[in-house]
Amino acid sequence: MQDSFLNSNFDLSHYLNNKRDITALALRKVIKTYFSDTRLSSAMQYSLMASGKRLRPVLCMAAAETVGEINDDVISTACAIEMIHTYSLIHDDLPPMDDDKLRRGKPTCHIQYDEATAILSGDALLTLAFEILSNPPSLKNAVTQLQVIKAIARAAGHNGMIEGQMRDIEAETIPASLDELKKIHHLKTGALIEASVISGALLAGGTTQAVKQLKIYAGNIGLAFQVIDDILNVEGDADKMGKATGTDVSRNKSTYPGLLGMEKSRQFATELSNNALHALDIFGNKAVPLSALAEYIIQRER
Amino acid sequence: MQDSFLNSNFDLSHYLNNKRDITALALRKVIKTYFSDTRLSSAMQYSLMASGKRLRPVLCMAAAETVGEINDDVISTACAIEMIHTYSLIHDDLPPMDDDKLRRGKPTCHIQYDEATAILSGDALLTLAFEILSNPPSLKNAVTQLQVIKAIARAAGHNGMIEGQMRDIEAETIPASLDELKKIHHLKTGALIEASVISGALLAGGTTQAVKQLKIYAGNIGLAFQVIDDILNVEGDADKMGKATGTDVSRNKSTYPGLLGMEKSRQFATELSNNALHALDIFGNKAVPLSALAEYIIQRER
User: Fold this and answer.
1) Within a domain: residue B151?
2) HSE of B128, CA atoms in CB hemisphere, 13 A
3) Residues 58 to 87 of B: which have CB under 8 A from any A CB?
4) Considering its fold, how many domains does chain B have in total?
5) Is A70 strand, coil or helix?
6) Which of A33, A225, B190, B274 is the S-S candidate for B222 at Cβ 3.0 to 4.6 Å?
7) Nearest CA in chain A to B149
């Protein structure tokens, strides 16, 4: 057990930096191992190495530490999930979808390169994620590895993240109700966040009960994350966010602030965060990082 | 061993119909199991069930029969590969890429639906392929399953099929040499055809030597397939092809007929087919279907 786990003055900022460093190092290794000297690889790298929050890799590793230890499989799975997240951003930013020109403070992939390259580099990041998830096949972990691949594919697929994006686009013409909005966000953001946490726990040897509790945790923080995203889209600082704000209103999109008002939206996010914390009770001190992450998610400014 | 394997009058047409029926049945089961009542699922189904040649599933199953027997894993893998092939067609047809309006005799996905839906349904078919490839994890086959996932992801990824499409687009502005053209086609078509054959062989228990020979076979027929595609684009019947012909010339694309002339292109295809047949020598009568498929590929009219 690391010192920080027992320390009531847990330093989240240090923890986040450490996990982001591990992610960056592992992603650079992926780039060195798999990428070529091509325009396609260049576009993949451009989007993958933009300064994202790395929330999913951090959650994957934190879940692993809650039930066991971070191992190589956890780290490479964390990278694969970040690739899937990155591909989804590249495709969502395309002109036929959200038509965004700025992402993480930089021109979006189709602006920096071109639309064809952006579509293909998204496809390629998604595919590379599965190449990495299936590598290396060691007899001992093969069954768990397949479980993890399946969980991630389900979460990222047409009954998960992709359906969320589809409904998000449709909600621009037919405004969504509060229940529909929760469903959209569960699909679009929650499902992959859940898969990140579950994968980390499975690969670190978590029990069925532990994985179940972590899934509840993840479902709640996933939704809280999106509520805060909506709030930041209204009142956030575009410079801090690294992307345009005020876009939801101009697109006529249903949002939590739009449906509930700003104050109730903040209350809702806090309630979700509390549900998440409650689900961690069984883990005691081991869950200090995940608890701190739940609080970070509702207090973030970008 | 089936009768047809020993019969010198092997009926390829019957064989193709049988394997296509198996594929169609399995794909319908996939649709029933995984698809929802959504616009996204509808678009996925629209493209997946268009009347394709099902060449990759047929090759996957034929490779399995060459070294062993077709089992459930072979069939579901054949379906997953067809989904990957279908996603690649949907994305290649998009306006920023080939901008094709007709495919398999029907409006392309983005014409029938819209661009956003086409991008997302391609993404979803690719993702679903990996969900299916990781399901069900049985202890006995888990390691082979991971090997197959890896082989398919590599073939479909940024060092395989996607790089092929990228170079194919680039070759519209800078005409490719013959060597470059072979490389493009190996990446764009050959890699996934190789993976189809290798996967079928691995899942049916093929030896390393058998897989090696089948890879040589597949590399040659993959290229032959593309040479014939180019020839048909010049002199083919658009009705039989189910897509526009003459498009390569109008796009200024490097093609085998353009670089070698029509007669030498046909000779080249025949030579490749003969190389493929030679690689099957070690399998004797067991390889009758694969041999017939090699001949079919260079004689096809669509």
Assistant:
1) yes
2) 32
3) 87
4) 1
5) coil
6) B190
7) A134
pLDDT in tens, B168-195: 998 888 888 999 999 999 999 999 999 9
B282 interfacial to chain A (CB closer than 8 Å): no
For residue B77, tell me if it sits in a domain: yes
Two structure tokens written together for A97: 């979808």
What range does the domain containing A44 cover? 11-299
Residue B167: count of CB within 10 angstroms of its CB: 21
Q: What is the pLDDT of residues B265-291, one digit of tens each?
A: 999 999 999 999 999 999 999 999 999
In a domain, B4, yes or no: no
Instruction: Spell out the SS3 assignment of A94-154.
Output: CCCCCCCCEECCEECHHHHCCHHHHHHHHHHHHHHHHHHHCCCCCCCCHHHHHHHHHHHHH
pTM for the whole structure? 0.93
- Residues in A closer than 8 angstroms to B154, CB to CB, are 131
Contact between residue B102 and residue B85 where contact means Cβ atoms under 8 Å apart: no
B33: closest chain A residue by CA: A159
Q: What is the ipTM of this complex?
A: 0.93
From the list B87, B96, B158, the residue facing A115 with the nearest CB is B96
Inside any domain, residue A61: yes
As a whole number of angstroms, the distance between CA B180 and CA B191 comes to 15
Contacts of A159 in chain B (CB under 8 A): 34, 36
Which B positions 137-166 lie with beta carbon below 8 A of chain A?
137, 139, 142-143, 145-147, 149-150, 153-154, 156-159, 162-163, 165-166
Interface residue A33 vs chain B (CB under 8 A): no
Q: Which residues of B touch A97 (CB under 8 A)?
A: 116, 119
**Residue A102 phi, psi (nearest 5):** -130, 135
Helix (H) or strand (E) holding B255: none
